[in-house]
Structures are given as C-alpha cells and as structure tokens.
Write a structure and sequence with these properties.
There is one protein chain. The chain has about 425 residues and is of the alpha/beta class. Among the domains are: about 220 residues, Spore Coat Polysaccharide Biosynthesis Protein SpsA, Chain A; about 80 residues, no CATH class. The chain is about 40% helix and about 10% strand. It has 18 helices and ten strands. The longest helix is centred in the N-terminal third of the chain and has 34 residues. The chain is globular, with a radius of gyration of 27 Å. One of its GO terms (molecular function) is UDP-D-xylose:beta-D-glucoside alpha-1,3-D-xylosyltransferase activity. Belongs to the glycosyltransferase 8 family.
Length: about 425
C-alpha cells in the first residue's frame, strides 16, 4: 500500500511541476507578445474633411525595451519576485513572469484634455495647461486646436516642458466641413464652433474634457475626470448651469430659442463620453427621425442661426433641451465665473468647499473689472513647476486678494484659495511615496 501511495505522490508532484513550467512559458510568451508593439504613440484620428493630421510631441520618454531592462534572460529563479535581482527577467520563472505581465496589462489611464485657441489666446492657453499639470496626478494628453500661425509657438513652449514627463500633446489646425466652413467660422467667434466637431475629429478618443482657454484648474484634472464614472447609462456629457440665480439669468430672460433646464448650461467646461455621443440618436424639433451627432449640427444651425447669441453654446443648449436625460449637471464650483459673485455670492458649493475650476470669461484676467480673478491668473502665470515655488504661491496670492475686498467677488476672496490650499497640500506637502 505504501508503495502505491509513494507512486501516486510522485506522479502528482511531477504533474504539478509540469503545470508550473507550462504556465511560466505561457506567461513569458504572452508578455513578449504584449511588449512587442509598445512605446509608440497612437496617431490622432482625423475627420474626413481634414486635409492633414495633427502634429505632436513632448511627453514621457519611450519605455525601455525588454533587452534594456533585463541583462540576463537565461537564469531561472523560483523565488518570490521581490527576492529576484532587478536586472534578471528569468525566462522560466512563473511567479516573476506573471507579475511583470500583470503590470503590462494594467497601463495607467491617460486623461484627454482639449482646447481651441485663436487670435491672442496663446498665453492664456499656456497658463491653463500649466494649471492642469501643476496639480494633476495621472498623465495628460493635450489636444490643441489652433490657427496655423500659433503652432510653432505652442510647440516651442510645450517642448520646453518635456522634462515633466507627464504629458503628450497633439496640435491640430482649425477645420470645419468644407461645404459649410464659412457659416461655422462666422458663428459667435472664429474658432468657437470647433468644439462641436471634436467627437467627429478625435474618433479614437473615448472620453474628453473640453475647456475654454480662460480656465484655471485649482484642483487636479483627475477629480473632474472621475465624474465620468458617475454618468448613468443615458448620460453622454457634463456641464454646469449658466446661472444659479434665475433673477440674473440670461437664457430665461432673453433667449429666443430652447435651452436646458431653468437657466441653461455653460459650455466652457464640458466633460464628454464621446463614444456615446457618436452612437446616440438625438431627439429634435426639425424631424421626427432621430439624428446622430454628425447629422444634427448643420440642420440645427440653419434653423436657429438668426436666433442664437452665444453660438455653439446655444446649439448645445437646444440639443440638451430636447435630450435632457443625456446631460450630467455638475455643481457651479467646477465652472466658477464672475456671474457667481458679481452681484453677491450665489454658488453655495464654492462657499462650502472652495472653487475647483475658475473660469475668467469676458476677459477678466486682463482688465480691472474683477481683480480677484486677475490675482489668481497672475499668481499662476508667475508660478513655475518647482515644488517650492508652488508651495510659496499662496501667501502672496492671499495678500493680493485682500486688496480686492471693495468688490463683491473680493469680499469672499477666501473661496479663491480654499481649494487651492488643499490641492497644494495634497500634491506637494506629502512625502513622494504618498503622492
């Protein structure tokens, strides 16, 4: 009996060893297959009306190849991964190979940020991008749509930031469908309508955060990006209301077209699930047939072009008036504008938690109408990427904000630095391993 028992145990042991060996070979071969096409940058998808693609650059260095990382492929270690020499891959090591493969199959999520810049908006756009980089954790992919004469300036400035190794960028020309290009260019401002075509141009991008050039991030982009997970099954985009207080609302008092909710929405900060946008069939007041994103834009413009004031934002309001179930509305602190404090504070969330995203529309960063907004813009303009420099920006900024208390926005100046203080503490005051 003992002899038979020994034979059974020996067979089981041999079978187990064979199984481990097979799994180790499978893991290594899969790892090599997964790593064979890494390191390259996906090309930006371009709409059919574009003559050429965008140009890109700046960002993390290419990952080291397997031959650079591993000095020895021949040794086999059956130790736990953390006991292996750092420069040994171990061709037949099951635990080590599977551990490395698991890392390769879980790449860090990249956040996509788009902006449209024309005319004199180069500097403003660069400060916006800087604010995004200062606080964000996950890597960023910038999609910058700009007039041709701005491309070289953008490239020079962004390439000088390549030491950050936490972003890539792609530059695109300003383009509209050829058959209606003149009409789209005349709508509101020369470049403003470009944002309407982002789902059709960036065909390979699943989700995107669009912002105007006059945006400043006072909180990591990661936090607004995480709102995508809060979308229900019908929601395709997120925006903030145009006004919290109907008595000073523009849409409810002056609009000659349909608009979302009681006061409309502001499109200066727009989070989009573009896969859903491209797939959705939208209800409308032009036909009983539901239309997709690429088919609804021109008919909508033709019907309402004599009735709209704010261009593409009005078209978005009309669209979400007929499809309210498709919009996720985020609080005003994610798109805080002078309207929220010009006649007294009317953004309760910002009073409680501070401003998350500052939107200096109507040129308030560059005049004296809203000095509190200008003080934040100038503080970030003068701030560099060094940790100590970021930490030291708060005290001078608070002193400048205290000089603005003669305005309604200045009276509540603490909301301008409340979230900013937390963002700096979380990002720069923690030990590196905790960031």
């Amino acid at each position: 009996m003992r002899r038979y028992l020994r034979v059974v145990v020996l067979c089981l042991a041999c079978g187990f060893c064979s199984l481990l060996y097979a799994f180790s070979q499978l893991a290594v071969s899969v790892e090599e297959g997964a790593g064979g096409d890494g390191g390259g940058k996906p090309q930006a998808a371009v709409a059919s009306w574009l003559a050429g693609g965008g140009t890109g650059g700046a960002g993390p260095a290419a990952r080291p190849s397997r031959s650079d990382r591993c000095k020895d492929f021949s040794l086999c270690y059956w130790n736990p991964y953390w006991m292996l020499p750092s420069d040994v891959c171990g061709m037949n090591c099951f635990w080590e190979a599977t551990f490395r493969y698991s890392l390769k199959t879980q790449p860090i999520e990249k956040m996509h940020l788009a902006v449209v810049a024309c005319g004199e908006r180069l500097e403003e756009t660069m400060i916006m991008l800087k604010s995004a980089l200062i606080f964000s954790v996950k890597p960023l992919q910038f999609h910058i749509f700009a007039e041709d004469q701005l491309h070289d300036s953008f490239k020079d400035r962004l390439d000088s930031w390549s030491f950050l190794q936490k972003f890539n960028y792609t530059l695109y020309p300003i383009t509209f469908p050829k058959e209606n290009a003149v009409e789209w260019k005349k709508l509101f401002k020369p470049c403003a309508s470009q944002r309407l075509f982002l789902p059709l141009i960036l065909k390979e991008v699943d989700s995107l955060l669009y912002v105007d050039t006059d945006i400043l991030f006072l909180r990591p982009v990661d936090d607004i990006w995480s709102l995508l997970k809060k979308f229900n099954s019908t929601q395709i985009a997120a925006m903030a209301l145009e006004h919290e207080e109907p008595r000073i609302g523009w849409y409810n008092r002056f609009a000659r077209h349909p608009y979302y909710g009681k006061t409309g929405v502001n499109s200066g900060v727009m989070l989009m699930n573009m896969t859903r946008m491209r797939r959705k069939y939208f209800k409308n007041d032009m036909t009983t047939v539901r239309l997709q994103w690429g088919d609804i834009l021109m008919p909508l413009l033709k019907k309402y072009k004599l009735n709209i004031t704010w261009g593409d934002q009005d078209l978005l309001n009309i669209m979400f008036f007929h499809n309210p179930e498709s919009l996720f509305v985020f609080p005003c602190q994610w798109n805080y504008r002078p309207d929220h404090c010009i006649y007294g504070s009317n953004c309760r969330e910002a009073e409680e938690e501070g401003i998350f995203i500052l939107h200096g529309n109507r040129g308030v960063y560059h005049d004296d109408k809203q000095p509190a907004f200008r003080a934040v813009y100038e503080a970030l303009t003068n701030c560099s990427f060094e940790d100590d420099n970021v930490r030291s920006l708060l005290k001078p900024l608070e002193l400048e904000l205290q000089k603005t208390v003669h305005t309604y926005c200045g009276k509540i100046y603490k909301i301008f630095i409340k979230q900013l203080t937390k963002s700096i503490r979380d990002r720069y005051d923690r030990p590196p391993k905790e960031r």
